[in-house]
Amino acid sequence: MSNLDRRPAAREMGGLEATPAGPVLDLLPGKEVLLGESTRVRRLLPTLGRRMVGAWAFVDHYGPDDVTSSPGMQVAPHPHTGLQTVSWLLQGEVHHRDSVGSDVVFGPGQLALMTAGHGIAHAEQSPAVHPRYLHGAQLWVALPDAHREVAPHFEHHATLPGFTSDGLTTTVLMGSVGDATSPGTAYSPLVGADLTLTAGADVELPLEPDFEYAVLAAGGSATVEGAPVAHGSMLYLGTGRRTVRLRAEEAASLLLLGGEPFEEQLVMWWNFVGRSGEEIVEYADLWNAEDERFGVVEGFDGDRLSAPSLPALPLKARGRVR
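That's the Pirin sequence above. Prediction below.
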């Protein structure tokens, strides 16, 4: 999914100087953003005061939206570099096409993982005949320097590992939780998991103390470490935790995101991740010039997106938080 803001802010991200040395409870309420012509999303990362959680650098949560009488998601071809997109649906269907030839319709519980690496273009649309509701999350993972030029590729995993215990069903999108390990390719130590709680559940989930974590209330609301987390908001947990306690009065679906704090400094602007402002300018110029670096999305009926105008101020790589 694209960042469709026509005046995107440059985000200087990464570095360890602002990573908390222990547990914290910071609520991130999110900011509503219009995605294309018909989809509104809640942007949780990057946000004021928090730019990354491990290598997770971008989190949009949308829905549930009734798209019965609308085209639903309609995101024209656009580019990416230096990142992975992790698409996760709770309801609905999305048709993914990209410039390496992928053409896949995916639905709830299926992992759509696109590694942009050196450069890729893709489009995402609700099928012409689609389910009533659209509800999910779009996540970006920053690639470490050793892998950020990897050849672009796409993975679709229709089934994922997990486990059920004490009112909690865990599905592992990325990385590992307990003995369950995702088949999705990861390039840095991280974890992403869907946590479905039954009404009245009160459970503890093991964590890696060297990771930092956040929990997004994707469906319904819950209490995380005693703090209420309303639908569409995210709670940042910091580092140093060996477990997290989760409680839900009503059925709820949470997304657990975590990973080793991302040491490298980087720049994120529009749909590009680089290491300097000069790289970002080059990516934008190449995309607008229809350079072969990004390829062509075959089968999409319509125009591709153009890169917005770059900010007047130079883009510089800095730390993880403002």
